[in-house]
Amino acid sequence: MLDDRTTADTMWPTAYPQGYAVVDVETTGLARDDRIVSAAVYRLDAQGNVEDHWYTLVNPQRDPGPVWIHGLTSDLLQDAPLFGDIAEEFAGRLADRVLVAHNAIFDWQMIAREYARAAATAPVRQRLCTIALSKELNLPLPNHKLESLAAHFGVVQQRAHHALDDARVLAEAFRPSLHAAARDGVRLPLLECRPLTEWSDSPVTPRVGHQASYGSGSWRPSRRRPACPHPNPGRFEDGKPLKQGMRVAFSGDTSVDRELLEDRAVEAGLHVATSVSRLTSLLVTNDPDSATSKTVKARSFGTPVVDEAAFTQLLRDVAAAQD
Q1: How far is residue 63 from each of residues 108, 205, 272, measured CA to CA in Å?
Q2: pLDDT tens digits along 232-273
Q3: 16 and 148: one domain?
Q4: Could you say which of 192, 220, 239 is where a domain stops?
């Protein structure tokens, strides 16, 4: 087995990112209107070495939520800065780096929503989920909790659900994961971070002493993927390769992050469809007998169906479009 120095000196992939921001946020809850109560960032260089770290409390301007989990009471948070007060410093810690987190979609969305509320945009273009990376590396973990990943690499967790310690633990576990990926030629599961706009409905003008109400709105990505440049060659045929331009839809749970699967499909030249129609070339689902609208339509239209594992294999050899 090669050590880190050998990997770094002689085999480091030139396509890997130049720096990372390992992030953890504690929040008032898991819903879309919940707020951040603390945040921590460990900045790492291209090979996962720690450069510095930063931590802050954040006044959520509301009940702090599950105090029994994060330990942050209203008294502790009442004099903490508002998110708008720390947004610039936070942004400086994230700028020009890949955001790394455990279940990164959650941390990214919480951060993006806070920036949207502050009428700003987080300077993050890509994220990397350490759960997805552990799957790519086939790590023998009993589950995908942070404590299991830490134990696998011998990292001692001191204060679970404290943002600074969780970020430290993740940074220490990410470095050997990164080196294992570099050594084995594993492609990092990088996903695009799409900034969020504010709620789609305008907030209600608050009365004096009340906060604005956003209950009727919803968050949305500020932009969509570019249109597929290739014409649709028709339906997928069993025993033949996928062809660029084919319309692929997904339904149900997947073991690999859905966005990662979709991004890989787009990179291969496929059209990711949000619904199933007569023009759909293929439906990807691990539960073809379910009664979701997509599987029902696929059956009625005779749309070919494959599971996630088969689709992943097909992605390895997509035929070029005949434009």
Answers
A1: 22, 21, 40
A2: 999 999 999 999 999 999 998 887 777 778 888 988 899 999
A3: yes
A4: 192
Question: Is residue 235 situated within a structural domain?
Answer: no
Pair (152, 251) in one structural domain: no
Residue range of the domain that includes 38: 4-192
Tokens 């945040």 locate to: 39
- 233, exposed or middle or buried, with CB in 10 Å at 0-12, 13-18, 19+? middle
Structure tokens at 103: 């279940």
Pairing verdict, β 282-285 and 271-273: unpaired
Same domain, 264 and 188: no
Residue 252 sits in a domain of what CATH number? 3.40.50.10190
Query: Looking at this protein, which amino acid is placed at residue 266?
Result: V
Of 146, 172, 192, the last residue of a domain is 192
pLDDT for 186-216, tens place per residue?
A: 999 999 887 775 443 334 333 333 333 333 3
Q: How many domains does the chain have?
A: 2
21 and 159 part of one domain = yes
